[in-house]
Write a structure and sequence with these properties.
This protein has helices at 23-36, 42-46, 49-52, 56-81, 93-108, 114-127, 131-147, 157-163, 168-178, 180-190, 203-211, 237-240, 249-259, 278-286, 299-309, 353-356, 361-379, 399-408, 418-426, 434-440; strands spanning 197-200, 215-218, 225-230, 244-246, 268-271, 291-296, 316-320, 332-338, 380-390, 412-415, 448-450, 460-467. The chain is of the alpha/beta class and 469 residues long. The longest helix is centred in the first third of the chain and has 26 residues, at 56-81. The N and C termini lie far apart (64 Å).
Length: 469
């Protein structure tokens, strides 16, 4: 019996065996079409039933096609448009995606035979109802490898954006804020598949992974972090019983910094935007005596959060609530406000963000972020601390949010994260030399900025504040 398909993924049935499309390309086409139409996000669709039903090799190919096309889409479209008979012609979404899938394989996947890349892209267009456009798809893709220019110089923000398939406005801002070299590194990080990073809770779990053929390398910052070099983690018992967790090392560090923020162990902790729960679990590890409130406004994410935190029992209350509307006041010793944001520090992991995000979205994000941070500061007791964090590289969501909230709330003050970094180092949680690198990444106000490219993590901004009265 065929499993039901994820809503939003277009089903393409071959007309006969000679016109069959490989399952991987068919699934990739469906995911990309759903993303193009705004039906869902690629990470959700790649975990959906249509992709799960594939064999492991087909699932890997489908994932590589989806993420590769999304990463290189801006440059692919530019290269393909130049080969159209009418460059300004508006193509139907199915035709655009068939062209992108074929072009990505021809230009970026050396092991894929050109004939397979071209022929199946032609069939994708045909079977999606665009038989007349299939001849154009065939002609354009056959010209593409010959017509493609050499690598673009990366001597300016415009050229970096063009070479690395990023929006020009985004790269120009990064070059202005962080310098051209950092902007270049950010873009290169956004074009690569991030390593799968684990949090290892005990030595026995690491031994079990090794015995299962999983090859690991040490983390870059934390002793508990490991990067997966090879092997399959998903079947390991240690992952399913919680002794190993999949979590970016930068994300782990945010929670570790929050856990080290208070001078004395906190008795009560608020996690304002807790899903998916990885940071909440680390806070629970570091403060085993504390009572915790984990809030999440999305019902779907809340249900998953509650299930994930269930092993903590009565130590944690999971509440389906908007953090800006919490009734508690002066009730917690520590709050973590890891707020929803643009996610520009995660472009390697979530490549379609660059296609959705617009400059005018940032003020709207910042308005909500300020509201959450204000609520967190109201919820803690005098002398308590709030850690504010985003996975954004944009000042509007980071320094400017903190500055605006501190201006509005005179009974709060910023605190440098240097002491928290030293605390983690003394506790043996940081690898040797990491504290020096982290201190060098502090802003003049004492906040921490992890830039992808400088660290092999997602990008994060972390700031610490104390309520004084």
């Amino acid at each position: 019996m065929t499993a039901p398909r994820k809503p939003g993924i277009k089903k393409i049935a071959p007309k006969n065996r000679s016109e069959a499309i490989s399952p991987a390309r068919k699934a990739a086409f469906g995911v990309l079409l759903a993303v193009e139409r705004g039906h869902s996000h690629s990470d959700d669709l790649l975990r959906g039933r249509a992709v799960d039903a594939l064999s492991a090799p087909d699932r890997n190919l489908a994932t590589a096609l989806v993420l590769g096309v999304l990463r290189w889409q801006i440059r692919l479209d530019h290269q393909l448009q130049a080969l159209l008979k009418h460059p300004n012609a508006k193509l139907e979404p199915e035709v655009r995606i068939a062209l992108r899938i074929g072009a990505f394989q021809l230009l970026h996947m050396d092991r894929i035979p050109a004939r397979a890349a071209i022929d199946e892209s032609v069939e994708l267009a045909k079977q999606a109802g665009h038989r007349f456009a299939s001849a154009m798809v065939n002609a354009v893709l056959r010209k593409l490898p010959v017509a493609t220019n050499a690598n673009v110089s990366e001597d300016s923000a415009v050229n970096i954006a063009r070479a690395a398939a990023h929006p020009a406005w985004m790269v120009d801002r990064w070059a202005t804020f962080y310098g051209l070299d950092a902007a270049r590194a950010l873009c290169h990080h956004g074009q690569s598949q991030p390593a799968l990073t684990l949090r290892i809770l005990d030595a026995a779990a690491a031994d079990e992974l090794h015995a299962a053929g999983v090859h690991l390398e040490p983390g870059e910052i934390l002793n508990a972090a490991r990067a997966v070099v090879s092997g399959e983690v998903s079947a390991c018992a240690a992952l399913h019983d919680g002794r190993v967790r999949i979590q970016d090392e930068g994300s782990q560090l945010v929670a570790e910094l929050a856990g080290a923020a208070c001078d004395t162990p906190p008795r009560s902790i608020l996690d304002c935007c807790a899903a998916p729960g990885g940071k909440t679990l680390i806070l629970a590890e570091r403060s085993p005596e504390a009572k915790m409130l984990a809030c999440e406004s999305s019902l779907q994410r809340f249900d998953a959060l509650r299930e994930r935190l269930a092993p903590l029992g009565e130590r944690v209350e999971c509440r389906h609530a908007d953090a800006t509307a919490l009734p508690e006041s002066s009730a917690f010793d520590l709050a973590l406000a890891d707020v929803p944001c643009s996610g520009t520090g995660t472009l390697g992991r979530n490549p379609e963000i660059r296609h959705r995000l617009q400059l005018e979205d940032l003020p709207r994000q910042a308005e909500r972020q300020r509201a959450i941070l204000l609520a967190a500061l109201r919820a803690i007791r005098p002398g308590g601390c709030v850690v504010y964090s985003t996975c954004s590289m944009e000042p509007e969501e980071n320094e400017e949010v903190v500055a605006a909230v501190l201006a509005e709330m005179p009974n709060a003050r910023p605190i440098s994260l240097e002491a928290s970094i030293e605390s983690l180092d003394r506790s043996g949680l940081l690898i040797p030399g990491a504290a020096v690198r982290l201190r060098a990444s502090l802003t003049t106000e004492g906040a921490l900025r992890l830039l992808p490219g400088a660290f092999h993590t997602d990008g994060f901004f972390v700031a610490l504040m104390e309520r004084t009265s």
